[in-house]
Write a structure and sequence with these properties.
Layout lengths: L1 H43 L7 H6 L2 E11 L2 H14 L3 E8 L6 E9 L3 H11 L1 E11 L1 H27 L3 H33 E10 L12 H29 L1 H31 L8
Parallel strand pairs: 1-5
Antiparallel strand pairs: 1-4, 2-3, 3-5
Helix pairs in contact: 1-5, 3-4, 5-6
Amino acid sequence: MVLAFLLLLPLAACGAASNDASGADGTGEAAMSTENGVAMDAAEFGSTADFSAVRENAKLILSADLTLETQDYEATCAALEQMTAEAGGYIQSSGSSGETGSRTASYTLRVPQEQFERFFAQIGESCHVVSSNRWSEDVTEQYTDIETRLATLQTKHERLLALLDQAAKMEDIISLENALADCEYEIDSLTGEKRHYDDLVGFSTFTVTLREVQVLTAVSDGTGFGAQLSQAAQNGLGGLTAAVRGILLLLVMMWPVLVLLGIAGGVYWRVRVYRTAKAQKEQQNDPPQDKNA
């Protein structure tokens, strides 16, 4: 009974502290979520408001998804990798597919959270952005819960060690050692989960798709009729250019067939000329027939 009471006492105290912290953080999380929603909306409308204070007090996972186009594939790939390195980030994964002239590169870039705004703007200034999306996920509640549970388990672990030092009976020793093993397993699991959140929060994620094109897609500068008309005209010109280029490429690809058709046409013309000349010669050599005969 004494052993059970000693084990339950610190857990009850830590559980109460966890409830208090959860209540406080729940209110804080609601405020953070609201402010973060405003931050994303403001950024969408081109606001330059600084929400760094919100990010310092909340655990936010920042992400962005961009589709880019380029007419200089190698240079743009090198520029993206250079920008990532200068921002203190790294390339989590990358890949390339397609043939020269129509290649596609895929990047997953990890950039320190404090460099998120600067890096996002830098991509927009350095590359032709066709589409872009950005969002955040507030994991303050989950993170606080992990910290509280870890603190509770650490207290339990210390108390179990103290009880193990005082235990005299073999059955008590075995029971305490099993409890210690379970406690250490839970601590390791939560520590790994906390480290995973630290990585997601500390480094924002940029998913970038880069397409190599011959003509850049026109991007509208507004939603008015004039902007849409201008974009349609640019897209139409680009489509015409692409169609002409496609026809030329098709003709070049089919050059063996065209050569054979040319040879066949030449032979047919020579045979026809020969037959026509022969028929005319035979007609001239035939003696005129007497009509009275």
